[in-house]
Design brief:
By secondary structure, the protein is an alpha+beta fold. It is built from five helices and twelve strands. The strands form three sheets. It has a five-stranded antiparallel beta sheet with strand order 1-2-3-5-4, covered by helices on one side. Strands 7-8-9-12 form a four-stranded antiparallel beta sheet. Helix 1 (23-41) crosses helix 3. The longest helix has 19 residues, at 23-41. It starts with 22 loop residues before the first helix and ends in a 5-residue tail after the last helix.
Length: 241
């Protein structure tokens, strides 16, 4: 299945957005660079370090866009806390651009670590989203302005309506996800894949005409080590609904 926002009623001019790059190779290379830095210094890479690793990578690979796609010259069709969104009628897809210097939030983080996701976290999130939910999100490139990046992705569109809270709960728990609460927000943990998700509000899961649910814009994060232990304990102590 291919997921995204339900298309708006308006139809726009032809777009000039490239097909984009598959995420798997990008994320594997970026994570490999993070691991190399972590081995040298001991411990983990943090937000500022990952900004630098990402900057070096996109410059070397030519992923910094020389100019914005034409769609960005018109008002967005939608916007939220993380993205501005433009519908591309030629390809029945959406172009999403993060706000400058903001790449979403982590589901859970280590003590003294940034709650904000890095550009590398952001791309890994969408790779996991593709793998878990059958989507086909691709990386278009990055715009840089005064040292701050805007991440551009392309996501196929579908038709549907926002799912209800009951449908969302049933969708995850019925597929083996364990519910927990972190920072006052409902999240879910897949113990098999050791992945957590959050931001599961109605606008981020679409009920399609065939009755199936399509996640379109969730926070997705792998957990290991101490974070994995914390999530397991949160699941054990999660209140019943």
């Amino acid at each position: 299945m291919i997921f995204s926002y339900f298309p708006p009623m308006s139809v726009h001019e032809s777009d000039d957005v490239a097909t984009g790059f598959p995420l798997k190779a990008l994320v594997e290379e970026l994570r490999s660079r993070c691991e190399a830095v972590a081995r040298l210094q001991g411990g983990f890479t943090y937000f500022i370090e990952e900004i630098g690793i990402f900057r070096d990578y996109v410059k070397q690979r030519g992923h910094i866009l020389a100019s914005p796609p034409a769609a960005l010259n018109r008002p967005p069709d939608d916007e939220g806390n993380e993205h501005q969104v433009w519908f591309l009628s030629d390809s029945n897809s959406f172009l999403k651009a993060t706000w400058p210097g903001f790449y979403g939030l982590l589901v859970i983080h280590r003590p003294h670590e940034e709650l904000k996701a890095s550009p590398i976290d952001y791309l890994e999130r969408w790779l996991l989203h593709n793998e878990l939910f059958g989507d086909d999100v691709r990386f278009i490139g990055a715009l840089e302005d005064e040292g701050k990046f805007r991440m551009l992705i392309r996501q196929p569109a579908i038709a549907g309506v926002p799912a209800t809270g009951e449908q969302i709960e049933r969708f995850f728990t019925g597929n083996g996800w364990l519910r927990f609460v972190v920072d006052g927000e409902t999240a879910f943990f897949d113990p098999k894949r050791q992945v957590v998700i959050s931001d599961t509000h109605r606008g981020n899961l679409i009920l399609m005409d065939d009755g199936l649910l399509a996640p379109i814009d969730l926070r997705v994060q792998p957990v290991t080590g101490a974070l994995l232990d914390i999530v397991r304990k949160l699941c054990e102590s999660a209140p019943d609904l």
